[in-house]
């Protein structure tokens, strides 16, 4: 029997019952108890009160009541797919990471694309940054490259992240607006945060509204390190380049698509993969050393800066193919837990203060969201290589240490042991300096790269940036915020600033933002004293 042609019985109240027969399984409770009637609660008399010993109803509604988990505090709306990464050539000269040793080696991956500011039910084509998070299930444990579709970021220090996100998401009193609408709080924060100017140029550009996830670039953003088996380190920036090329939609198209189909991007990915049209990206790296880094006026540890690709052309090192949709959205896409601190031996961090702050944040957020320190026991988060440790118990423990011994060292010869040769050893960077809340002078130029990005755009693209800024700032109600923002634009491009100022109806242009405001050192005694 199939579900469609099975026996139907009519109950006393006229309700229909589908009956298990043939190979149709019997409905059970979560405890495995067979269920006789799933249409009616247990009650006293047909029109009487319900009784509390209806364990089937109690369990069913209890479970339903707990179906939702907190949405991600950022990147709440996302869509994921499975695939594989294939290494082109051995990178043994640069890294001992197993994933990069053998040409043709395939590593399973899971990718989640997302928008940052919108809630889980928001629309796909918002003017917003897109997340591009990749989990590689390598033979040395999971490596998470948790990037975005824009190569720079708004802030230089992770301590500003809660402020940035509070300013960008709904205001606490009115609980609007969503990501796609401009508003005072976001532009207030931006206008008081000149380091955001490079990113602002990118998010006001056409880059920000991809035609689909399949036409989107991805970036690891930060400078990372590759470390080889001799312990030598090379700095690296990671880039994903879509094989289909980079394509966006214009703002007026985005607004229409959002209205007609807020699920446009997820629908596109679903149909492409289900139809066998597998999207592909090339992983490219910019490799450099300290001597190369020292040639720039900006700092390679500053996440608001790129290393121009014409100065350091990226080298293709492998490809990512997405070829399978999750069987279940919640189990996989919703429960996947990305963490920047997941790196295998041979890949390491730089001192980028945003990256280091992220390494601290993601573990906390996963515990909050998934509710148990055992979130690595979920199949989507579990490593696909052998693993062995002494962690035990906690909510929903699926595997505990086997045998008597759950500690080391032990003299019973049981359990795993550390490996000085195969284990992760952090790059032995030499560090010194005073302990204080500091920001380096090399992070101080906030306008040069914003200007370079703007002038690299074609005239129609520049017009779109001016139109986006005008539209956004026209929704800002506080005149001082508009003026402060245009004062920054004057330091980026005068024509851009004047166009926006005129369209906003400014009677006079503000003075350019002072790039040399008094420093804290002018006001405070040096922490060294
Ligand atoms: C989530 C990227 C900065 C905290 C995410 C996700 C991406 C991402 C792609 C979504 C992961 C997924 O699809 O599940 C980035 C990039 C950053 C950045 C590229 C800067 C370059 C930060 C900073 C913090 C932070 C500075 C905190 C100090 C979080 C949190 C989540 C998140 C709490 C939610 C994770 C979850 O609940 O699964 N980020 N992020 N991010 N990020 Fe970031």
Structural summary, described in words:
The chain has helices spanning 55-65, 161-168, 184-191, 197-203, 251-260, 264-274, 290-293, 329-334, 353-370, 448-455, 459-474, 479-489, 494-503, 520-523, and strands at 8-10, 16-18, 77-87, 106-115, 130-138, 141-148, 218-219, 224-227, 233-242, 280-288, 315-324, 347-349. By secondary structure, it is an alpha+beta fold. The chain is globular and about 80 Å long. The mean pLDDT is 95. Bound molecules: protoporphyrin IX containing FE.
Shape: globular
Q: Sheet bearing the most strands, described?
A: 10 strands, antiparallel
Q: Report the order of strands and helices.
A: EEHEEEEHHHEEEHHEHEHEHHHHHH
- Detail the poorly predicted runs: none
Total beta-strand segments: 12
What integer value in Å does the Rg equal?
27 Å
**What's the rounded overall pLDDT mean?**
95
Q: Briefly note the structural class of the backbone.
A: alpha+beta
Helix content: 10-25%
Say which molecules are bound, naming each kind only once: protoporphyrin IX containing FE
Percent strand:
15-25%
In angstroms, what separates the terminal alpha carbons? 84 Å
Helix count, DSSP H or I runs of 4 or more residues: 14
């Amino acid at each position: 029997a199939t579900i469609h042609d099975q026996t139907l019985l009519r109950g006393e109240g006229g309700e229909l019952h589908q009956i298990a027969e043939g190979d149709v399984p019997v409905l059970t409770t979560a405890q495995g108890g067979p269920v006789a009637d799933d249409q009616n609660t247990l009650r006293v008399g047909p029109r009487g009160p319900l009784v509390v010993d209806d364990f089937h109803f109690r369990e069913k509604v209890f479970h339903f009541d707990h179906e939702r988990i907190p949405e991600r505090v950022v990147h709440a709306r996302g869509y994921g797919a499975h695939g594989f990464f294939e290494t082109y050539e051995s990178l043994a000269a640069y890294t001992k990471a197993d994933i990069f040793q053998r040409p043709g080696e395939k590593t399973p991956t899971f990718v989640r694309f997302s928008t940052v500011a919108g809630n889980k039910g928001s629309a796909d084509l918002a003017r917003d940054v897109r997340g591009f998070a990749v989990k590689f299930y390598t033979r040395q444990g999971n490596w998470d490259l948790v990037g975005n579709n824009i190569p720079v970021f708004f802030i230089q220090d992770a301590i500003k992240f809660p402020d940035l996100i509070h300013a960008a998401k709904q205001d606490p009193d009115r609980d609007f607006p969503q990501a796609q609408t401009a508003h005072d709080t976001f532009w207030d924060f931006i206008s008081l945060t000149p380091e955001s100017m490079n990113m602002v140029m990118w998010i006001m550009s056409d880059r920000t509204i991809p035609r689909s996830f399949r036409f989107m670039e991805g970036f690891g953003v930060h400078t990372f390190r590759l470390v080889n088996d001799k312990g030598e380190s090379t700095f690296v920036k990671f880039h994903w380049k879509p094989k289909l090329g980079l394509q966006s939609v214009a703002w007026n198209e985005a607004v229409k698509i959002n209205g007609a189909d807020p699920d446009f991007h997820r629908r596109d990915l679903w149909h492409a993969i289900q139809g066998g049209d597998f999207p592909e990206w090339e992983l490219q790296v910019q490799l450099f050393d300290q001597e190369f880094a020292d040639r720039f006026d900006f700092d390679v540890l500053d996440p608001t800066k790129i290393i121009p690709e014409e100065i350091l052309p990226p080298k293709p090192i492998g490809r990512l193919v997405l070829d399978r949709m999750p069987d279940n959205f919640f189990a996989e896409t919703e429960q996947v837990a990305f963490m920047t601190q997941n790196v295998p031996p041979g890949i390491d961090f730089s001192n980028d203060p945003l990256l280091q702050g992220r390494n601290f944040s993601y573990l906390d957020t996963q515990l909050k969201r998934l509710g148990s320190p055992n979130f690595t026991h979920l199949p989507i988060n579990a490593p696909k290589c052998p693993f062995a440790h002494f962690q035990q118990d906690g909510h929903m423990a699926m595997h505990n240490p086997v045998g008597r011994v759950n500690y080391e060292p032990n003299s019973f010869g049981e359990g795993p042991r550390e490996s000085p040769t195969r284990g992760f050893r952090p790059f032995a960077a030499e560090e010194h300096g005073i302990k204080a809340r500091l920001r380096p002078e090399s992070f101080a130029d906030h306008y040069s790269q914003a200007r370079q990005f703007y002038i690299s755009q074609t005239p129609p693209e520049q017009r779109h940036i001016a139109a986006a800024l005008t539209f956004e700032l026209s929704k800002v109600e506080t005149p001082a915020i508009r003026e402060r923002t245009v004062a920054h634009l004057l330091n980026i491009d005068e024509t851009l600033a004047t166009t926006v100022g005129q369209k906003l109806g400014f009677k006079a242009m503000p003075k350019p933002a002072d790039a040399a405001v008094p420093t804290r050192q002018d006001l405070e005694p040096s922490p060294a004293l």
